[in-house]
Amino acid sequence: MHNFPRPTTPTVDAPRTAVPGHCPECAAEALERYRVMSEGGWWLVVKCGRCLYSVSREPGPLLGAFVPLGAP
Amino acid sequence: MGRTLFSVDVGGTFTDVVMVRDGNIHVTKVPSNAAATHLPVIEGARRLGVADAAVFNHASTKGLNAVLTRSLPKVGFLTTQGHKDMLDAGRCMRPMNNQTDARWHRPFGDAARPLVRRYLRRGIHERMLATGEVLIALDESQALDELAVLKRCGIQGLAICLINSFVNPAHEQRLLALAAEVFGPAFPVSASFQVGPRAKEYPRASTTVIDVMMKLIYDDYAHLLDAQLRANGFTGQLNFADSTAALIPWRDAITAPHRVLFAGPAAGAAACCGLGRAIGDGNLIGCDVGGTSTDVTVIVAGAPFINDSFEIEHDLLVNTLATEVASVGAGGGSIVSVSPSGDLRVGPQSAGATPGPACYGRGGTLPTVTDACLAMGILDPDGFADGQIRLDAAAAARAFASLDCRMSQPERVRFAWRIALNNIAEEISRCALRHGVDTRDFSLVAFGSAGPMLLAGVLDIVKARRLIVPPHPGLFSAIGLLSTDFVYASSRSQYLLLQPDTGPQIEAIFAGLEAQLRERLGTEAAVVRRSFDGRLAGQSWETPFIEVNGPALKARGPAALIEEFHAEYARRNGVAFPQIPVQAVTWRVQMIVPTEKLSWRAAQAGVGRPVPSGQRTLRYLADPEIVAPVYERAALGAGHAVAGPALIIEPLATTLVIPGQRAQIGTLGEITITEAR
């Protein structure tokens, strides 16, 4: 039987990494890359943290953060 | 001698212009121009001579097409924090056909084609309770931050819809002032308490968004149109038709332009009602067969069904009074294709105006219903659209030959025609069924350019009493704009359980609405019509348009309204629950100012026997081919009758009378087709 660890943080969140450049819509220097769950599954997006404009959007890992036990 | 009246119906393919001078109808059709919609209108007005016109009534599909194709201006949307995705979720209703389809997306949702992209929808820190009390005060500094973001994003207009603003609009009013500070006083903004203070936030929000978009689409257009008409000598009144085809002076119309979105289809219904009054037939089913679709309207006892909102697409709602018009994707441009299982299909895809049917010779290679009619001999290659388009019969034949199926060429054409007829017949039957009427008690009215050539075949399927082809069927919707009155309307929601002591409250609500309308109307005499939308206590859907009889309300108080509600409820649903209390939700007032209308003139009596001007071979209609006489409609007078098969031609339409039918010219020049048996 597997023993899974208990969560150690009160909430979960996707890590965000800063992306250099300006938002083409509102010109803010606040671009970030992170993972979102939306229609059609997980996506890796680059969005403006100020106005939320999506600069780019590409399919992310099929199961998001979950890594199956049998995965290599 | 009457005044000169003008009307125009701007469609996707043609702009139809009608003038009535000295009781005579003059018409012209000008190809529409999507890039400069006003130019064909001005060209049509110039052709017919607009200088002495007293009114110029206008309907257009410009706004509707812009929404359907999402050729929309960039607007921002402000709402209560946590509610910005109501424009994505709608009412969370799926169409019946897609209940189990995992791939289905709401057509206006973020995963498909949203009206306002998500990053342009911003939440505002505030909250108003349903009682009108403030739970969270408006955070003005946060609101200014959000407005600044929208300004940097370059929005062209702004829609504001806060939760419960229909009860207390204070926060929306303050946001309007802040928006004026940030964007300037002339910036187009629509706030939901002004557009329509109605309960239920999603339809109020979608209506507000559509309203600001229509302001951006129609404002410049209306100013330009008025200026150019005046430059051509016009000194009369320019009016826009609303979604029930009622008229509104154009300056009023552009203050709440969501009302004019559905004017084109409503104008067709108004035309049917006008014709019905003139010929003494109040039970009609109007069928407007255009290039892309057939619009069906049921008219009972001289009046169409009016709804309190309409859907542009599934669940994309606009809160405005609108004539009920059902649409099916079967028109002259509907594309004939082969399904994966090998059977023939007609529509709903359309070849549109560009490239159009294959026979137009504008690059279209797919067969359409118009190609079928040409191949069958119903259409004349040289006389289509008053000779403005020459049809290529070889291109139509090639298009049918290119279909990947095992049917012979005659079968392809014949089946395409019959499937198109059945698609229209199915929609007519569905509409009749929905309203509980029997098509055998109704007359079909065939209009739109393709109506007269298709509907004779439908008559046989739906077993209607008769088919009426009105004069000028290709421009009949534009004629409808000369058959309606000016209507000023106002409504607001206020939940009120109808009890004996609520009489003064009800009077105060109606008096407030009437005072608003009086401000716009001035001292002009008008017929006042009061109504409310109510429900049984505990229901969540309202029964709309319960008529309020003023004297009865005064004499008997709310009991009169409760009685009216239960009677209307029983009429619509077949059951009544008089023991359950009634709650009123939305209150409405209409002020109707009668205006000069088109009066149909008696047609000249036919002299002698009708003489055909030629003959045409009709293929695939029956086996063997039929040679049908061709009659000029202008040469037929009242009382003339012809037996099918026959073709009755006029510059902008062709009426087909199939074997076994009889066509007779009526007193106003209308063609009435009945089964001869």
Q: Give the beta-strand count of chain A.
A: 4
Low-confidence stretches of chain B: none
Shape of chain B: globular
Give the helix/strand class of chain A: mainly beta
Low-confidence segments of chain A: none
**Which percent range fits the helix content of chain B?**
25-40%
Roughly how much helix do the residues of chain A carry, as a percent range? under 10%
Structural category of chain B: alpha+beta
Strand content of chain A: 25-35%
Compute the CA-based radius of gyration of chain B: 26 Å
Interface with most residues: A-B, 14 and 11 residues
Features:
heterodimer, A: 72 residues, four-stranded antiparallel β-sheet, 0% helix, elongated, B: 677 residues, alpha+beta, nine-stranded mixed β-sheet, six-stranded mixed β-sheet, 17 helices
Outline of the structure:
The complex is a heterodimer of chains A (72) and B (677). Helix content of chain A is 0%, strand content 35%. Chain A is mostly beta strands.
Overall description:
The complex is a heterodimer of chains A (72) and B (677). Chain A is an all-beta fold. Chain A has a domain at 17-59. Helices cover 0% and strands 35% of the residues of chain A. In chain A, strands 1-2-3-4 form a 4-stranded antiparallel beta sheet, with no helix packed on it. In chain B, a hairpin with a 7-residue loop joins strand 29 (614-618) and strand 30. In chain B, the strands form 9 sheets. In chain B, strands 13, 14, 15, 20, 23, 24, 31, 34 and 35 form a 9-stranded mixed beta sheet that branches. A 6-stranded mixed beta sheet of chain B has the order 3-2-1-4-11-12. Helix content of chain B is 31%, strand content 27%. In chain B, helix 4 (140-152) crosses helix 5 and helix 10 (369-376) crosses helix 12. Chain B is built from 17 helices and 35 strands. Classes of the chains: A mainly beta (72), B alpha+beta (677). At the A-B interface, loops of A face loops of B.
